[in-house]
Each structure stands twice: as C-alpha cells, then as structure tokens.
Amino acid sequence: MTEQRGGSGLASVLRIQGVLVAIALSAGLAIALVHEWTRPMVMAQRGGLLGDAALEVMPGAASYRIYVRSADGGLRPMGDDDTPELFIGLDEGGHIVGAAVVGSGMGYADVIQLVYGVDPAAGRLTGMRVVASRETPGLGSVIVDDKDWVDTFTRIHLPFDGEQNLRNLRVRSNANHEQGEVDAISGATVSVVSVTRIISSSLADWLPILKAEFDELSGGDRG
Q1: How far lies 184's CA from each of 102, 106, 107, in Å?
Q2: What is the pLDDT of residues 102-127, one digit of tens each?
C-alpha cells in the first residue's frame, strides 16, 4: 500500500511538472509569436515620418528594418536611443526590395531633411521625399510641392567615372537623368542645389556601405 501511494505521489508530481513545462513553453512561444507579429508595427511607429517617406521611395516595400552606423563604420539595428539613418525595405514576403537613406543639410532658409531611395545593384535612385523644410513658400518650397520635379528622382542614375568612382549629381537645365543630372527649377536654384548636394554627400558615405552589406542585411534574399 505504501509503495502504491509513493508511486502515485511521484506520478502526480511528474504530471504537475509536465503541465508547468508545457505552460512555460506555450507562453514562450506565444510571446515570440506576438513579438514577430507586432515587430513591423513597432518599427513603423519608430520610423515615424521618416519611415513613411522611406516606404514611398522604395517601390514594392511593405515594411522595413531600420539601421544606424556602428562605431566601426558598419551597420547595426537601430537602438532605443538612436535616430533612423537607413531603412531596408521588404516586400510582403520579406524579401529585400531597396534601401532608403536619411540625409540633411542647409537649404536657402533652414535645414532640409530628406529621405532618398537607392538601388545599389542597379546604380540608380528610386525616389526622394523632403521631410522637413522651411524654404520660401512659392520658391524654395517647390522641392516639396512640385510633384513632377520630385518624381524625376525615380529616374536618376548614379554617375560614375571611367574607373567606377561615384561622381556628384549635377543640376542642369534639360537634365539627362541617366547621366546623374537633376532638373533645375527657375527661381528655386538654391533649394534645388541644396537637395542635390545633400544626396551627393550622403551617397559618398553610404554607397560603399550599401554595396558591401546590402545582400547580407537580408540574408542574400532579394525579391
């Protein structure tokens, strides 16, 4: 009788332990699933206006990952105290579709902050959006308001010299977009030149990093 009670007690303990382990595993799995499900929403919230602009300049992007430059010049995921610097766009299937870089610099009246899309493999821009600007209404503000001009940044190719070194974008009347030229706008020369300079300066910093790490950021999985 004692042996039966002892065996029954041990079995009860083991059953309780098994239930507790199952609950712990289920809870852990639920937390992991919720984390994965909410991660795009959390990222979107952290990206804010910059993230909204990034999605607009990365064709086919449904979500993104946010990165900043690390101390050694490489990339690392954005931390809680960081400001977004680079967005890697992903389509609905999680495949990489492009990159968007945050840039800023002085315009005619104040600092201009913008986001531009770039396809390092194709060597071209995929769009541009000014996120913050206080340029003169009706003049410098065309860098935001002139949709036709803004849309030309989806057609601009990166200019390289004969040794494949990146050259600066140039502002020209009757611009040849395939030669890395940006359309001039009468009456808004300073603002247009400022946007062009911001992108050129930013590309000089970011393009080597993107070429080196673009595929690795997505595990080599491009859409």
Answers
A1: 22, 18, 15
A2: 999 988 777 899 999 999 989 999 99
Residue 41 sits at φ, ψ, to 5 deg, of: -70, -40
Please choose, from the candidates 129, 109, 115, the residue with its C-alpha nearest in 3D space to the C-alpha of residue 191.
Answer: 109
Q: In this structure, what are the phi and psi dihedrals at residue 163, rounded to the nearest 5 degrees? A: -100, 15
Q: What pTM was estimated for this model as a whole? A: 0.76
**Closest by CA position to 49, among listed 119, 129, 125:** 129
| C-alpha to C-alpha distance for 144 and 218, rounded to whole angstroms | 31
Strands 86-90 and 63-69: antiparallel
* Average pLDDT for the chain: 82
Domains in the chain: boundaries: 47-217
- What confidence tens digit (pLDDT) does each residue in 45-95 have? 456 899 999 999 999 999 999 999 988 888 999 998 899 999 999 999 989
Give yes or no for a contact between 41 and 191, defined as CB atoms under 8 angstroms apart: no
* Residue bearing the bigger pLDDT, 133 or 165: 165
Long-range contacts formed by 220-223: CB under 8 A, 24+ apart: 221/94, 221/95, 221/96, 222/95, 222/96, 222/97, 223/60, 223/91, 223/93, 223/95, 223/96, 223/97
DSSP states of 6-28:
HHHHHHHHHHHHHHHHHHHHHHH
Here the tokens at position 54 are: 């990034």
Do β-strands 181-183 and 170-172 pair in parallel, antiparallel, or remain unpaired?
parallel
